[in-house]
């Protein structure tokens, strides 16, 4: 297992457990969606907020001076792919299914070794911590050849950075073409292949990873990550849901991120995707679903009646032309909605401030004003929705919640009435204002600089890795060019077919 210095451990997870004790964050303007905006102290004991209010006395506690600072909960990125962080700037105007060929299945250039996966994950962690994101749900993908070691390397990166991370190990048993509605295009029957292995065999290595990391570090939660419903056979997805329920595991997958997947569901399940998830018992509070774009009205109602979490990724959805998620309808129906950046090869950054702003503004192009989510709503999606996706008490500056906190310089975020502070947080890019970041009460960023790793050395290694990635791009382009005509035909066929939110078809 690789570490930041390039050394190797014994193979057992390094816990990197945070130190316990008491910390008093004194004299900051505390912003919490459910509380009064005022100057308060925040007492942290063993990583948990125990008191919030003025004039707290805590003899022997470490003091963090928050005067001239606004104290907010750490942002939660509820969906990304750390293996893509090294590939920002990969492509421009490709729709989702075509982008998949270049980004995820591009050949040798797309394969990262365990050390390279560590570097890519660490690069993302540095970027997120710098912008005040303290928690991430990473749908991490490692090559089958070194899946266990690769997942360990990714997870160790988060331990070394000091970031809170749920790592959902991605897996599937169907190839890319078997995930598409090829029956809509003639002459494609030969491209459909059977599952590569039985569900138990596919899950075996993932569960071994989960067993290695379960309970090893309070900031790390290993999870099941079936890639998407179209890329998993019905048997594998059902087995994943059963395993999650029986073993008390969390699960994240992709849900209806492309219109083509509506037609896959109709053929494969004989019903809608969400009704299938309902039938197999996969709509529990332990499950979260990235994108959730092409939901019918019936699916929105079914989803909202459950405790599952939808994760909205507005920036990557727009870049890939995947569609616009029905977030106002989900919110009206009472669904839990979180926010995610998605991976850097479809978004190009891990900036949750940009995600917040886009989530607020996007509905204004096509929804009536009374459906627009305001600043406090999108902040609540990030904090409360993110906490639900992570399955942890996050997103509040309140007793009983984890002390994942960010101190913003008040000269760059104007102290004002609470509503105006919320507007600044939701619509302004606060990256430049991040001064101090704490996870479980432990500082991991001071004066805007990540303190847990040698950032310069990591960035040098990431630059060298990126150079290798670009060297392999011509080979990946050849693979893409071989499949692009077929995918364009399929894209045209799917686009021309009518679709109604009322029926889903």
TrEMBL record:
Source organism, top-level taxon: Bacteria
Domain Amidohydrolase-related residues, every copy: 70-442
CDD domains reported in the protein's UniProt record: ATZ_TRZ_like
A Pfam family this chain is assigned to: Amidohydro_1
Coiled coil stretches, renumbered: none
Keyword terms: Hydrolase
InterPro entries linked: Amidohydro-rel (IPR006680), Metal-dep_hydrolase_composite (IPR011059), Metal_Hydrolase (IPR032466), MTA/SAH_deaminase (IPR050287)
GO molecular function: hydrolase activity, acting on carbon-nitrogen (but not peptide) bonds
The protein's name: Cytosine/adenosine deaminase-related metal-dependent hydrolase
